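NADH-quinone oxidoreductase subunit N, uncultured Sulfurovum sp. Tokens?
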Amino acid sequence: MLEPVNISLESLNLMTLMPMLIAVGGGLLILIIDLIKDNLHKSLYVILTVLILLINLGVTLGLNYGASEKGFFDIMLIDGVSIISQVLILVASILFIPLALTSKRFHEYSYPEFFALFMFMIAGFQFMVSSDNLILVFLGLETASLSLYTLIAMHNRANSFEAAVKYFTMGALAAAFFTMGSAVLYGVSGSLELGQIATAIADRINEPGIMILLLGGAGLLLTSFAFKLSLFPFHTWAPDVYEGASAPLAGYMSVVPKVAAFVVSMRIFEMFIDLQILWVQNMIIFLAVITMTLANLMALVQQDVKRMLAYSSISHAGFVMVAIALATDKANTGVFLYYALFMFTNLGAFAMLWVSRHKDRIHHERFDHPYEKFSGMIKIMPMGAIVMALFMLSLAGVPPFSVFWGKIYLMSATVDAGYIWLAVVMGLNSAIAAYYYLKLIVFMFLKEPTEAVTQETTYYNVSKPLLTILGFAVFVTVGSILLVNPLIEYISVMVQASNFGI
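Tokens:
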């Protein structure tokens, strides 16, 4: 007869779970408040959500990252990468939520369910980045994805439902590939924890047939994350989903889910690269190069600014994917530096689309944000045109604006790793991307307003919450030269304090 095992609370190390518990508890609190008293003003839910996120951020920053702590039956992993990625997720969320106060044009923000689902989604992302256990990563992935599908559909337009269904279908395929890949690794190693998988693979790597299984498992997992990161050829859903989602949510989707997916990709694929399984490294480089190149070429021919920004986000994801293949501390630091700077610029650019949103498609029968809509914007909304131009120049990688520093740091890491040809390809892609970003600037500054623009009040008065967020985004975009060095130092310390579960 088995004797009962006594488990102390101290051994569970529940502090590692605290950020996720705060997010889940916050979502449940919002639902309970709505049950007790319905039809409360959305500003209450916005303020409550921001408060919960700030508490979550404080608890996350208070975690001990130096010792790569394990917790809750060793399925939680708190290290430097876990903390820095959670900080990025929470800061992006704190920037996004106040946009709900800017206008009544997007009715989904008036539903308390929107904010509850948003909190559950954040908890899912936090679980993803804070574990080296493939089951918990999968649960976090699905929790976040299922919430996000619903948030997209709540925009309640025909193309929003289409976007949600497409995203759900692609997400289901990604989940299937992730499950099959995890099953293969479990079959090879007898474990679902990356540290134990790495040890088992190192012991068995010379056995006949093992390499084929490893390549199969890595291929399945790479396919899964290619869906999530919108890498070629699994990128086709992204422009349609971004177009169907509200502009701010599309901007949010271009940053936060990708940060979480990149962290899990680091933990999994850098394990294979450390074990000298070079096929995985070569496959990631191939995917990164073809993704950034193809996405840039597709962005060149887009007629809609929102779709252009969607392809732009795909290109940026391909650019950053190079860092996973390099598997160096400098490259990993570059991932977080890139997204820390890209986050403000891209959220700002999508927020500017919100400013110019019109209920009816008066400029184009197919698109909400055609280039023509921005014609002569400098004459109608001068500050808006200047702010949007700053965001476009930053996304193009023009110095000294924020994304330039992320690009140059990643290219430096690529050269340091000995891949000079790859750094040249990254530079050429940045040059191609400059064309379609500058195209919007040409429309805003050098073209006359169209008849539809002059007859209709397309640009709305900007409310204080939106002004505050845009101002903050502009400050980071323009003043990044002052922030880069301390940011690099902080991220480097966090990355070096991590072992990626190995």
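Strands lie at 69-71, 76-78.
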